[in-house]
Design goal:
It comes from Hymenobacter armeniacus. The chain crosses the membrane at residues 6-25. The chain is an alpha+beta fold and 149 residues long. The protein folds into two domains: 1-30; 35-148, Glutaredoxin (3-Layer(aba) Sandwich), CATH 3.40.30. Helices cover 53% and strands 16% of the residues. The protein has a four-stranded mixed sheet. The chain is globular and about 40 Å long. The N and C termini lie far apart (77 Å).
Length: 149
C-alpha cells in the first residue's frame, strides 16, 4: 500500500511528460530560414529555381512541379535547389523581398532562375520547360567550367 502513492506520482509525471514533450520539441525546432537567408546560404553552392505561386494547387505551379519531377538527375548534376515559394505561407518580409529584390509580384505565378552568383538569370510567368532551363544554365561560363572538370 505504501507504493501506491509512488506509483501514482510516477504515472502523473509520465503523463505530464507525454503532454509536454511534443511542446518542448516544437519550441526547440529551428525556425525556417527566411528567403534572403536561404538565397545567401545557396550562393556559390547552388543554382536556385524559385517556383512561386499563391498556393500548391495553382495549375501552373503543379505543371512546373510535374515538369521537374522526372528531371532529378539533371537538376542534381547542375547543382539546382528547386525552391517552392507559396505566397500564402510567406512572411510579410519575404513577400516584400520577392517584390523588391527578385521582381516577383504576388499573386502571379513566376519561375525565376538565380545563378550561383546570386543574380537573376531568367524569369518566366509560365512554367519553364526543363530543356530550356538546362540550355540556359549550360551556356553560363561557370557551368561550362564545371562541365570541363
Amino acid at each position: 500500500m505504501t507504493n501506491l502513492p509512488l506509483l501514482f506520482r510516477s504515472a502523473t509525471i509520465i503523463a505530464l511528460a507525454g503532454l509536454l514533450f511534443p511542446l518542448m520539441l516544437r519550441a526547440q525546432a529551428p525556425k525556417p530560414m527566411s528567403l534572403p537567408q536561404t538565397l545567401r546560404a545557396s550562393q556559390w553552392k547552388k543554382r536556385v529555381l524559385l517556383v512561386a505561386a499563391p498556393n500548391a494547387q495553382q495549375a501552373d505551379f503543379r505543371q512546373q512541379q510535374a515538369l521537374l519531377a522526372s528531371q532529378q538527375a539533371a537538376l542534381a548534376e547542375r547543382d539546382f535547389l528547386v525552391l517552392p515559394v507559396l505566397y500564402e505561407q510567406l512572411s510579410a518580409a519575404d513577400t516584400q523581398f520577392l517584390t523588391r529584390e527578385i521582381g516577383i509580384k504576388p499573386p502571379a505565378f513566376a519561375v525565376v532562375l538565380i545563378g550561383k552568383d546570386g543574380g537573376v538569370k531568367e524569369r518566366s510567368s509560365r512554367p519553364m520547360q526543363p530543356e530550356n532551363l538546362f540550355g540556359t544554365v549550360d551556356k553560363m561560363p561557370m557551368r561550362r567550367q564545371e562541365m570541363r572538370k
